[in-house]
Amino acid sequence: MPNLTEKQSLAVNKSNTNIIVSAGAGSGKTTVLKTRVERLLTEGVNIDELIILTFTNAAAAEMKDRIRKVIKKNKNIAHMEEFVDSAYITTFDSFAQSMVKKYANVLNISDQFTIIDSNIVNLEIDKIIDEIFENKYVSDENFCKFIREQTLKNDKQIRNSIKSVYKSMQNKIDLEGFLDSYMDTFYSEDFVNQAFASFEDYIFNLRDDVLELISKLNDYALPEAVEKNEKSIAEFAEASSYDELLDTLSFRLAQSRNGSYDDEAKEISPKISDARKKLKLACFFGDKKMLINNYLSTKDYAYCVIDILKTLHEKLQEYKKEKNAYEFIDIALKAIELVRDHEDVRNEIKYKTKEIMIDEYQDTNDIQEEFISYIQNNNVYMVGDIKQSIYRFRNANPYIFKTKYDNYKLGNNGFKIDLMENFRSRNSVVTIINNIFSKIMSDDIGGCDYKKEHMMIYGNKAYDASNDECYRTSILTYDDIGKYSRVEKEAFIIANDIKKHIKNKEQVTYYKDDKMCTRDIDFKDFTILIDKSTSFDDFKKILEANNIPTTIKKDINIKDEDEIHLLKNIITLIIKIKKHVFDSDFSHAFASIARSYLYEMDDDELFDIITNKKYEESDIYFKCLNISKEIDALSNRDILSRIIIDFDFYTKLLRVDNINERLIKIEYFVDNSTDLNKFGMNIYALNDYFDQILEDKSEIKMKISSGDDNSVKIMTIHTSKGLEFPYVYLPMLTSNFYKSPSKDLFSLSNNYGILLPFYNNGVGTSFVSTVSTVNEMKETLSEKIRLYYVALTRAKEKVIMVSPHLEVPNINKVSSLLKFKSFAEIINSLGLSELEEKVDVETLDINKNYNVIKLSNYKEKIPKSEVIIHTKNLNVENQMLENKHFSKAINTIIDDDLRKKLDFGTFMHYVFEVYDFKNNNLDTLPIGDVEKKKVINFLKHDEVKNIRNAKIYKEHEIRFTDGENTYHGFIDLLLEYDDHFDIIDYKLSNLESYEYKIQLDGYKKYIEENYLKPTNIYLYSINKDIFKKLD
To answer: Closest Cα to residue 913, out of 846, 963, 984, 848?
Structure first.
């Protein structure tokens, strides 16, 4: 086992109680986790008696890999290596899914359920809302009153708000109970009084801001002016209730025109004016009685909204059950139902499990915590760092960690361990992080008392061999004036700074044979971390224009680029041609396609076609017309594939950038279109599906791999979590913490319910909404501070921040942070002038040339070769090749019964694909007893009795050309023995089709000709449990 500190050793060895480990950045959390697992296994715990949970598939895979390596090195437990893949080292979602599948019969659902695309769910939600509204317009006067008073043109805003609120509510553990008790909870006297008390606190904080500014003003005032000001604000300052304060807002200060103030007061007076306006605006809707009455007047609206939400939830659950398809959140809730309502299942999991280990515990949400609470047995080991909780948008609740930490600190129900030594970073990095966050992170803002309990301790003394002063944190500041944008200035500043570090041959550290060594700094040692990815492309262009190789590391958003719009517009044309509808939508879709990279049609040609209605003469129309004739006989996948081929997407993509990303997006849409057919949705619904993706506010992200070459990396702070880099740049610190107000008419607050506007000769905002907004701002600020803690703690050697110089007041208390809108303002308020390095932008070679692409640049990058390539002209006779598939085609109409059979057959193919024929993993697969029985039956046959001696290939793809035909197919199971091959093709029932013989003869011919071994071919009927050898 590795050398551990005293605290790390305690974290590895402490047992027989719930344990929370607060592991600061660089504290060796991963080492502690894997060493604890090694200790448990060495002491006799089986790996299948552990549940190890984390939050991403990548993290789970990495954890498995690390545990596998630990086991492999330890001869006492090396025999457990083969069980690592089947162990519960997984994500919460995967674990919940496996439990629900395993006990599906207990939950009275089919274990053949699928995970449904959220966009399909959103389409169904829209459909249900349409039906509800249609019925209510006819029968519900309260609803009609709600619509009249809350809308101007139409009810679209209310529909969208209903949908947003429902989607937010889906994270409630007991949604039905929440809706049933809603009115009693959020319109009770206790709730109203508590909410108003919070509102009053907010108002008095605004009052204090005004008084603080007036006090500063008085510092520059003559004694007579000070006396007048203090007398004028006396009642304002002494007011002890909201209503008292309301009567004192109109005080008058001494005028400045008679020389009552020094010149310095000129900067303070406008701030006083702004602070007073903010206070008056917060009090705009009247006294306490009026504010409360305004809120209570929304009660009828709330009844209406809750009724709609109940009906929507009921109908959506019916839809999901009918389709046997659920979202991940549904599966998580069913997992809770399983262990909450079924004692035998709960006890089976609880008493079989020796320890539940949760990594990144600060990212746990309420549903996951609820699930764990039922299966824990004083054996939960939680590792995390509340300072790195940055996934609120995924419903992470850092206060779960905080509550446990605070309780265990007092010895209540568990044990608390702090790992505060940082072994990642130099002393200079640790020092600046402590300096910043001890001033801005508190229990109230950020979720922890950094100064008291979370100060990092410099731990890697190997750095002491070099001069730490060379790696002192820098804040590169500049004057935010001139014609260039902040992005351009900061990118050129960073480019110039990188070149300086490279030129100076600064030293960075690396480890060789566990010994710290140094080398010259290189491009790969620099990483640029930015809150948002919107400026990535500009940074990359500017750095590369300065001859600095750069790589952007980010997930791709499926909605970016043109592909989704192109596919949607082509489908629109196909449908409209089919229906003979040539309206403005047709013209817009046509123009979009014509202008895209698919056609690059010039303005004159496009104008002529649209003006003179020459659509039918165009290639676009011709292709759409041909596809429209076949859409009723094609699946959604086939339609999209046909569009992609006919419109030559793959060739035309060469005209644009980001080709790989665009290909991934196209593949995503084609793959997901298959799900629509499963739910009875045709091309017309496919069009709605694309609309839904575009309208939905959330992003659809996919990971792409990129090389780790010698280049500067640009990534978001979220992407950087868990990583470390020698030099870290933090630009774009002026990014606003707070989002623009939602366009929804109302929204959901976890603490304050549905924030409905009141109506009183116009729409107004209730005091409850104001309190919720203030609370939301505090939570957003807390997460942003934690986000920048993550950013700064990525650095091993040096942190370089880039910010315009801003005139902001110094922080005198943590609560004053709410006045700041960006991290740049916070940094400028901390008095870190000794770290500032002023950059004169005028001295940089800053220009707009980075946007100019010179073709010669690319030619210069191609290395010259001395090899002479001889060319020869060939006369090739053109001929059409027929692309043939081995698989039997289905030429009948697919009814529901046939579809169910096909779905089961597809799933059994999947089961055989994931089953490990050499190491039986049947019990660990998320399948039901029916499928397990099918696998057991298969293995009883003589044809596979020696399967463990064979090399096994599953879903083996073959593709070859024979004469004029190109053949393509997949062998379900290919077994290679020393002297022969066996080909086994799974069929659901029927084995008698002549086409199967042709199919397998093709496989056999290919294998024998390419591998020179005799080959047997078999059909296996899954339902009939029969092998058939074909001669």
So the answer is: 984
> pLDDT tens across 305-352, in order?
999 999 999 999 999 999 999 999 999 999 999 999 999 999 999 999
The whole-angstrom separation of Cα 590 and Cα 601 is 11
Do 637 and 673 meet the contact criterion of CB atoms below 8 Å apart? yes
C-alpha 56/C-alpha 530 separation (Å) is 22
SS3 of 159, please?
A: helix
Long-range contacts, 501-509 (Cβ 8 Å, 24+): 501/526, 501/727, 506/470, 507/466, 508/726, 508/727, 508/797, 509/462, 509/463, 509/466, 509/726, 509/796, 509/797
Looking at residue 14, the DSSP 8-state letter turns out to be -
pLDDT of residue 861: 40
Q: Please give the structure tokens belonging to residue 40.
A: 């448990």
Return d(Cα 429, Cα 407) in angstroms, integer: 31
**CA-CA distance, 931 to 108, in Å (whole number)?**
17
| DSSP one-letter string for 91-104 | EHHHHHHHHHHHTT
Give first-to-last CA distance, the chain, whole Å. 59
Contacts of the segment 899-903: beta carbons below 8 A, 24+ positions apart: 899/678, 901/988, 901/989, 902/988, 903/112, 903/678
Helix (H) or strand (E) holding 145: helix 141-150
Structure tokens at 1: 């086992």
Nearest to 91 by CA among 339, 401, 323, 358: 358
Residue 525 and residue 831: Cα distance in Å, rounded? Answer: 29
C-alpha torsion 770→775→778→779, nearest 10: -130
Alpha-carbon gap, residue 458 to 970, rounded angstroms = 57
Cα 925 to Cα 94, 101, 102, 319, 816, distances in angstroms: 11, 9, 9, 27, 54
Q: Would you say the C-alpha torsion 753, 758, 763, 765 has a positive or negative sign?
A: negative
Looking at residue 690, the DSSP 8-state letter turns out to be H
Specify the pLDDT at position 850: 83
Q: How far apart are CA 367 and CA 328, in angstroms?
A: 11
What pLDDT score was predicted for residue 761? 81
Tell me which residue has tokens 């002549």: 994
Contact status, residue 248 vs residue 239, Cβ threshold 8 Å: yes
CB 384 within 8 A of CB 23: yes
The answer to whether the beta carbons of residues 376 and 356 sit under 8 Å apart is yes
DSSP 533: G
Q: What are phi and psi of 969, to 5 degrees?
A: -170, 175
Q: pLDDT band for position 893 (50/70/90)? A: very low
Name the nearest CA neighbour of 1022 among 944, 924, 942, 931.
Answer: 931
DSSP 3-state assignment of 445? coil
Per-residue pLDDT, averaged over 980-984, amounts to 93
Strands (DSSP E) along 760-881, which ranges? 763-764, 795-804, 836-838
